[in-house]
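Lab notebook page, bench 4
Experiment: in silico fold of construct C2
Operator: M.H.
Input chain length: 121 residues
Purpose: comparison with the prior construct
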Amino acid sequence: MDEKHRLFRERLLDELNYQGISKLDFAKQVGISINTLNMYLYRGSIPAADVAVRMAQALNTTAEYLVTGKDSTTPPSKSGTKSDWQKKEISHITNTLTPNQLTSFLEIARAFKNAVTLEES
């Protein structure tokens, strides 16, 4: 399996594990068989663009990220930092909130930031 395929496989598995989605549920959600999913995960295949897009939508990410590891829709960040998973988790949480919940979340986050800034001063 070449590097490009291995990295796609790792990103896909990471997303499935991170989001707690079973392979069977994911395959159903994307509209592919479990055998097809296993082909992408274990045989070094990369899906056609339409399947990659459906995978990305099911994982709330982009096909570009799954295939290349980059996402041009977000500003570049320092890859490999310890806080990357935390930022990703915050993003995942905020993407699932209702507008009212998001407003409350932002108020709490701003209050926390202000409190921490005051402590550091």
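Observations: The two ends are 52 Å apart (CA to CA). Confidence is low (pLDDT under 50) at residues 75-79.
Next step: discuss at group meeting.
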